[in-house]
Structures are given as structure tokens and as C-alpha cells.
Amino acid sequence: EAGVTQSPTHLIKTRGQQATLRCSPISGHTSVYWYQQALGLGLQFLLWYDEGEERNRGNFPPRFSGRQFPNYSSELNVNALELEDSALYLCASSLIRGLVDGYTFGSGTRLTVV
Amino acid sequence: AQSVTQLDSQVPVFEEAPVELRCNYSSSVSVYLFWYVQYPNQGLQLLLKYLSGSTLVESINGFEAEFNKSQTSFHLRKPSVHISDTAEYFCAVSGNNNDMRFGAGTRLTVKP
Q1: Assign residue A28 a region: left if phi > 0, alpha if psi is -120 to 50, beta otherwise?
Q2: Is A65:A77 a contact under the CB 8 Å cutoff?
Q3: Of A2, B49, B63, B89, which one is least surrounded by beta carbons within 10 A?
């Protein structure tokens, strides 16, 4: 069974540009979660999507947005990139009904803003 | 809502020594509890989980954690650590609403 896949693995962007990160969940998982892991700041919750809808959002500005497609894959967009957006962005997936299996994480996309 | 506190940000230990990584949680509902491990430049991997039943849960690589409801704790222990256990460890708690909360993480460094 394929795990959660994220692409690209690394991404280098210039300040002010836009970044698009992609995530494919485990087959059968309908919920997708995005987290930002900046150096020394732990896991910061960004977004939760389920069945194509945004279900919850963390304390991030509107320039962080995303969507979930009919096949449950998801995209995270970051507009007007700032230097402090440099971080590891982790995607996770789970079944919507309960969390008995927890989240399954991808390996992340390392975004570097220069 | 649930919350998690990991009491130690860094834990240095020597190889073959025992280790305990502490985790306390707060919640007004029944919870599921998890420990995840993150090796450098990788995502998080599920190490072990408590859902119900026996309060002591074990992983395949020698870690164990004990759910203590009265102390609202879920500490992670290993009797003898290896260099390869060096990683960041995250405690997490969820209720019945798909809302999983993570602790700030504990960096375990095993020294030779």
C-alpha cells in the first residue's frame, strides 16, 4: 500500500513568489491535514480538508490556502512568500470517522524562500 | 478541546541507558493517545498508540508508554537506548472529532 506522497521534495522560491505543494493521501483516507514545521517551532496546524471541504484552519494568514480534489489529493498554496515561510511542510491523512489509526504523514516538502 | 504538554524539549542520554520522555495531556472527553517519531529530514512515523484496554502499550523497537488517567500522562520509556534512537519525539492526543493536538516535541540525543 502506497503511503502519503508529497511533491516536490524540495522547493526554492524567491520572496514574493507563489509556492504550490501537493499531497496524495493513503487510498481510502478522505481527510488531509497540512502542518508547517519551522526550525524550533514544532508542528503548527495549517489546514484540514475532508470530502473536498475546508473543515478547520490554523492561525495563519489568508495567503496560505489550499484545496482538496475529488480524488482526495490536496494542494497547499502559499502566496506572496516571505522569508519566514521557509519550513518543512508536512501533509497527513486519516479516515474521517474516528482517529483510531492516527495520522499517516508524508515525508514533507522543504520550502526555502530566498 | 485537547492539549498536550511535553515537559522536556531536549533529553541527552548515553547509549544503553534508560530514558523517559514525558507527556501530559488535558481533555474533557475520552482520548486516544499517540507517540510519533521523526528522524532528520523525514516525516513523522507512528511509534505507538493507546486507544483503550491495557494501559501499557509497546512498539516493535522496544519503546513502551503507559496511559495514566489519574495523572493525565502518557510517558514514553525505553530501558536501553541505541544511537539509532536519536530523533524528535512527538506526543499527540485526539478526541472524537478528528482534532489531533501535538506537543512541542522532545529531541532525544543518544551519545556513545
Answers
A1: left
A2: yes
A3: A2
pLDDT tens per residue across span A16-59:
999 999 999 999 899 999 999 998 778 899 999 999 999 989 99
- Please, is B11 exposed, middle or buried when counting C-beta atoms within 10 Å of its C-beta (0-12, 13-18, 19+)? middle
Could you say which of A48, A88, A99 has the minimum Cβ distance to residue B94?
A99
List Cβ neighbours of A15 (8 Å cut-off, separation of 6 or more).
A81, A82, A83, A113, A114
Chain A residues with CB under 8 Å of B102 CB are: 42-43
Please report which confidence band the pLDDT of residue B68 belongs to, taking 50, 70 and 90 as the band edges. Answer: very high
Q: Least CA distance to B35: which residue of chain A?
A: A102
